[in-house]
Every structure is written in structure tokens, then in C-alpha cells.
Amino acid sequence: MFVGHPLAQSLSPRQNYVPTKKVVLMPGSREGEVKRLLPEMIVAAKLMAEQDSELTFHLVLANDALRRWAERQTQGLKVAFSLGDAHQRIAQADLVLVASGTATLEVALIGVPMVVVYKLSAISYFIASRLLKSPYTSLPNVIANKPLVPELIQKDANGENIAQQAMQILNSDNQTMVEEFNAIHTQLKHDTDDEAAKAILDLIGDIQQSS
Q1: Which superfamily does 7-209 belong to?
Q2: What is the secondary structure of the chain as a DSSP string?
Q3: What are the residue ranges spanned by the domains of the chain?
Q4: Whole-angstrom distance, CA of residue 195 vs CA of residue 136
Q5: What is the pTM of this model?
Q6: What are phi and psi for residue 82, nearest 5 degrees?
Q7: Which residues are CB-contacts of 15 (< 8 A; sequence separation ≥ 6)?
Q8: How deeply is 43 buried, as exposed, middle or buried, from its count of CB atoms within 10 A (0-12, 13-18, 19+)?
Q9: Which residues lie below 8 Å from residue 27, measured CB to CB, with a gap of 6+?
Q10: Beta strand 95-99 with 22-26: parallel, antiparallel or unpaired?
Q11: C-alpha to C-alpha distance for 93 and 19, rounded to whole angstroms
């Protein structure tokens, strides 16, 4: 059984959800991962907008360091920007495109469907694939030990694949996924072992840091 985490004490499933047609992009916090993932997310968003013109997009950046670079990447796509308000934006979204890492757990605890994407350098991926014992990379899937959310890793994390998975989720009711997220929240809230959980998340963070 996966041990608990204090995030489950501070985050709760959203209530009285009403669909918004909003998609949130969360490409990570480190420069390397943002520069690898955001271009693919933007390609996906443009493809999604072609299929549903009512969709709106919101890019959440961890800090202002990459704002100008990100603005250049998003040319041709109508997208809002914000800094450091991820939890608020997640709660307003129909879907989150999110980098693998702690953010996937945050999205799950708030109860929002997601597509998880990640790209590592070749050497980092080689190391990570041998260190991680789970067949999954996203925390919701690791915790549940089953594929609750789609994971697109390495070459599979391209705009076309992301858009395909995203539209499939947007065109479904996702009740089962949300119920599974609520079960994760309950499990972690009542099974909190801070040090053990931190060690697991630190390991994942160390692997990503090497990218």
C-alpha cells in the first residue's frame, strides 16, 4: 500500500463542479522539462482547438523566468498565463495536461481528469527505468497500481498523441476516474506517513532533476 502524504490534508476534491471547457497546461517547474514539454502541449492545444472551438487554454508557470520564452511558444494559440496559482486553476478545469511528478498527485486530489506527459534525456530515462519498480510513472497510477490516467512518455509525448488522449477524456463523463481520485484522497488522508511519502517523492524528484 502506498503511504499517505500531507497534500491530502491540504487539498480536497472540488465540489459543485460545472463544466467550463477550460484546459490547463502544466509543463513543470524546471527549465529543461518546460522546454521539452510545452511545445508538445501547444501543438496538442492547437489540434484540440481545431476540434472544439469553445475550448479555452490556461498555462500555469511555476515562476516568471520562462514567461517570455513561453509567450513565443504559444503564438497562434489564444492562451491565458498565470504564475503560482496552480490549485485554483486546476479546480476550474475540465482537463489538465500535466508533467509527471508531484503535480499529478495535486490534480488527482482536487479530482480533475488529466493527461500525464514526460520527456527525459536518453541517459536519464535509462537510469529512471531501472530505478523505478512500478510500471507507471504518474503518482495516481503508482498509488492505485493500475492505469487510471493516460501516460505519454518519451517519444509518445507528442502533440498528436496528447490531443487524441485529451479529446477522448473531454468527450467522456470521466466519473470512474474521478471516483478513483476520491478514493486516493481518502486513502492518503487517513494513511499519512510524512517521512516515507517524502522519501518516495524525493526519489522521483531526483530522477527528474537529472533530466
Answers
A1: Glycogen Phosphorylase B; (3.40.50.2000)
A2: -----THHHH-----S-----EEEEE--SSHHHHHHHHHHHHHHHHHHHHH-TT-EEEEEESSSTTHHHHHHHTTTS-EEEEES-HHHHHHT-SEEEEESSHHHHHHHHHT--EEEEE---HHHHHHHHHH--SS--SHHHHHHTS-SS-EEEGGG-SHHHHHHHHHHHHTS--HHHHHHHHHHHHHHHTS--HHHHHHHHHHHHHHHHT-
A3: 7-209
A4: 22
A5: 0.86
A6: -155, 165
A7: none
A8: middle
A9: 33, 34, 37, 38, 41, 59, 97, 99
A10: parallel
A11: 8
pLDDT in tens, 46-93: 999 999 999 999 999 988 889 999 999 999 999 999 998 999 999 999
Helix, strand or coil, per DSSP, at residue 151: strand
